[in-house]
Design a protein that fits this description.
Length: 228
C-alpha cells in the first residue's frame, strides 16, 4: 500500500503512524505544505493521512495552500481512497463531508480520557475508556451519514468513520515523546491552566504514565481501518 501524508507543521509529524507504515512495509510519500504544497495524482497513492496543525480550516485567507488541500481531500474521498485525519486533519475531512468546523467553547490540551460511543469494528480492540493526548481548540458537527466513534467530557465529537473508508480523530494516539515535546515547545503559549487544559509540567509528568500505550492503540486502530 502507498500511503501519502499531508504535514502542516514541521514539528507535527506522523510519529507512530509512520512507524506503523514502515513496519508494515508500506510505501510512504509526503506533501509538506510549509515547504512545497504540491499534491500527487489520485493514482499515485492508496491511502491519505492528514496530520494536525495550529491553523483552523476556516482560515483560507491566511494560508495560500489551503484551498488546494481541501479540493485534494474531497477528490481522494470521491475516489474511494482510504482517508484518515488527525486533529486538524479530521476537521478538514469533516468539512469536506459537509459538516461545520468552528471554535469550541473550551480548548482541550493534555492527557484526558476518551470513551467509545458505540460498538464498531474499527474500535473493537480499544478499551471502552482510555487516556490519550489532546491538543485542539476547534470542534465540528458530525458529518451526515458518519458514525460517531468517541467522545470526551470536554468535547462531544472526538472521532468518526464514514462509509468504511474515511475516518477522523480529534486526539493524538500517534503521539511519541519527540512529537509531544515539539508541540509543547512550539505551542507553549496555549498551556494556560483551565478545566481541560493542563500545564506543561502536568503534560510532561503524565506523559511517562501514558505514552507507551499510545502506540498499541494507534496500531490497533490502523490495522482495523485498512481492513474495513
Amino acid at each position: 500500500m502507498h500511503i501519502h501524508f499531508i504535514q502542516h507543521m514541521p514539528f507535527e509529524h506522523p510519529a507512530s503512524i509512520a512507524d506503523w507504515a514502515a513496519e508494515k512495509n508500506h510505501i510512504t510519500s509526503y506533501t509538506r505544505v510549509f515547504e512545497d504544497p504540491a499534491f500527487p495524482s489520485m493514482d499515485a497513492f492508496d491511502m491519505l493521512v492528514i496530520m494536525g496543525g495550529v491553523m483552523g480550516v476556516y482560515e483560507e485567507n491566511e494560508y495560500a495552500w489551503m484551498p488546494a488541500e481541501k479540493a485534494f481531500i474531497k477528490r481522494a474521498i470521491q475516489a474511494k481512497k482510504k482517508v484518515f485525519g488527525v486533529c486538524l486533519g479530521a476537521q478538514f475531512i469533516a468539512e469536506s463531508l459537509g459538516a461545520k468546523v468552528f471554535p469550541h467553547i473550551t480548548k482541550e490540551i493534555g492527557w484526558f480520557e476518551v470513551e467509545k460511543v458505540a460498538p464498531h469494528k474499527l474500535t473493537q480492540k480499544l478499551p471502552q475508556i482510555f487516556t490519550t493526548f489532546h491538543w485542539h481548540g476547534d470542534t465540528f458537527n458530525l458529518p451526515d451519514n458518519a458514525i460517531q466513534l468517541f467522545k470526551t467530557e470536554g468535547c462531544a465529537q472526538q472521532g468518526f468513520v464514514y462509509n468504511d473508508h474515511v475516518a477522523g480523530l480529534q486526539f493524538h494516539m500517534e503521539v511519541k515523546e519527540d512529537l509531544l515535546n515539539g508541540m509543547t515547545e512550539n505551542e507553549r503559549a496555549e498551556l494556560i491552566k483551565d478545566k481541560y487544559v493542563q500545564t506543561e509540567e502536568e503534560v510532561k509528568s503524565l506523559m511517562q504514565q501514558y505514552i507507551n500505550q499510545q502506540k498499541k492503540f494507534m496500531y490497533e486502530f490502523l490495522d482495523a481501518f485498512i481492513q474495513l
